[in-house]
Design goal:
Blueprint (H helix, E strand, L loop, with lengths): L2 H6 L4 H16 L6 H14 L6 E3 L1 H12 L1 E4 L2 E6 L2 E7 L4 H4 L7 E5 L2 E2 L5 H8 L6 E7 L7 E6 L1 E4 L3 E5 L4 E6 L6 H15 L6 E5 L8 H11 L5 E7 L6 E4 L2 H4 L20 E5 L6 H11 L4 E4 L7 E7 L5 E10 L15 E2 L4 H7 L27 H13 L10 H18 L1
Parallel strand pairs: 11-12, 12-15, 15-16, 16-19
Antiparallel strand pairs: 1-18, 2-9, 3-4, 4-5, 5-6, 5-7, 7-8, 10-11, 13-14, 13-18, 17-18
Helix pairs in contact: 7-8, 8-10, 11-12, 12-13
């Protein structure tokens, strides 16, 4: 039985035509084509023409995706962001293969095996890095501070991703970074905040939630994180698509963030977490679930959003396992924020636009009070909102003042973080006056 008969069945005339074309390709192509490969390429060709996020995966790659959502995967143990020319290492996980091989924060990866990374999306780079444990991956990189590239071979291992990291900053402010949204991100957040509150005897003045370079992940995890900072039953997002299963209303309630049979981890959250002043850091690589969290907190005026325009991925993908272990990841709906804003193609516009590099802030600052024009991811439109932008001189002075103290770690020279702390201190002073 040919592919045509297998695919067509009693389907529409259009499907029968596609099946017939596949049979012709298989019969006439110069070399033999494996049926499974032909079907995979055909389906992915259709999906690629629809959007960048829908995809058909064979059994191995589908299991990789599911493992990633569980927080476990075969990889080298680094966190990266895209840059011109490659991928910059933000973190090399303690004890992971990359760190053992000498990779460190600041190194710029140019190639993975034989694939140059210039112009690639973060998700594509991530997929190249991952693979079966005990397999090798060859990286060409420029170590931080060096001029010439070197080649390093790293053996992959099972990586258990810690998606939440937190510590206290000066003057009683909590810093929480979420790198992506996975099954246990909500529990990790509660544990991290509970630990900080305990070490500070409850004396926490405010929270900085860092979602920069966070590409997203599970929407249930995003709802759980949002619920940690919002009142019970507050609307977080709603989704609209074709079919009743694609229409959702998501609220700060356990039904919308817990997995079946799971106890409510937010019960253990210190009550003051929902009350202290809060700022959220975002940038152009903050996408999807990151935008849900930042947008919901912004719409409810729970937090001041600081940074640059986010990516603008406001679509939801659902995974559909197939009988042979393969799977379909299909865009089923677009989501909207509590205030009705559509994120897809537009992004989240910060309340305070602050470039991480103060020189970039000087270069892009509006002249004579004019509106800042920022390119918007996906569509290339120009932002029409008029967010507040701190004077570039203020931003530069913050960085210079921190650098002059000498003993400050590099992270505290971050202009966006410094501006977020300035806002939180101002809010704290108002609350105490």
């Amino acid at each position: 039985m040919g592919i045509g008969c297998a695919l067509a069945g009693e389907h529409s005339e259009a499907v029968e035509r596609i099946a017939d074309l596949l049979d012709q390709i298989r019969a006439r192509y110069v070399e033999h084509i494996d049926d499974e490969k032909l079907i995979e390429n055909a389906v992915n060709g259709v999906l690629k023409g629809l959007d960048p996020y829908s995809k058909y995966m064979d059994a191995e790659n589908f299991e990789k995706l599911q493992s990633h959502n569980r927080g476990e995967y075969g990889g080298v143990g680094i966190e990266v962001r895209t840059e011109a020319g490659g991928a910059r290492i933000l973190t090399a996980f303690e004890g992971a293969p990359a760190q053992r091989a000498g990779l460190k924060q600041g190194d710029l990866i140019l190639k993975i095996d034989q694939t140059a990374l210039q112009g690639m999306e973060l998700e594509q780079i991530t997929q190249l890095m991952r693979g079966r444990p005990d397999t090798d991956v060859r990286l060409m990189l420029v170590p931080e501070g060096a001029a010439d590239p070197v080649e390093v071979v790293v053996q992959r291992a099972v990586i258990k991703w810690q998606s939440v990291r937190a510590h206290m900053l000066d003057n009683g402010y909590a810093y929480v970074r979420i790198t992506n949204f996975q099954e246990h991100t909500g529990e990790m957040l509660v544990a991290a905040l509970g630990g900080l509150w305990k070490t500070q005897d409850g004396k926490v003045s405010g929270i900085v939630l860092d979602l920069r370079d966070n590409p997203g992940g599970l929407i249930t995890a995003a709802v759980g994180v949002s619920s940690a900072f919002l009142p019970a039953n507050a609307p977080i997002a709603y989704a609209d698509g074709s079919g009743s299963a694609s229409k959702m209303r998501l609220y700060a309630r356990k039904e919308d963030y817990l997995r079946a049979g799971e106890s409510d981890y937010l019960i253990n959250l210190p009550a003051a977490v929902r009350e202290v002043p809060m700022a959220v850091l975002v940038n152009k690589n903050s996408a999807s679930s990151s935008e849900i969290v930042a947008g919901a907190l912004q719409d409810h005026k729970r937090a001041v959003v600081v940074g640059t325009l986010t990516y603008g991925k406001g679509s939801i993908q659902r995974m559909f396992p197939q009988s042979d272990g393969s799977g379909l990841k299909i865009t089923t709906s677009h989501y909207f924020l509590p205030g009705g804003r559509k994120v897809h193609g537009k992004g989240i516009q910060p309340d305070l636009v602050v470039e991480k590099d103060p020189m970039s802030a000087v270069a892009t600052a509006p002249v004579d009070g004019g509106k800042p024009a920022q390119p918007v991811a996906v569509t290339g439109d120009v932002a029409s909102a008029d967010p507040k932008r701190p004077a570039p001189a203020m931003c530069s002075e913050l960085v210079r003042a921190s650098a002059a103290e000498g003993d400050k770690p590099t992270g505290e020279l971050d202009c966006q973080l410094q501006e977020a702390l300035r806002v939180l201190r101002a809010r704290t002073e108002i609350g105490q006056s």
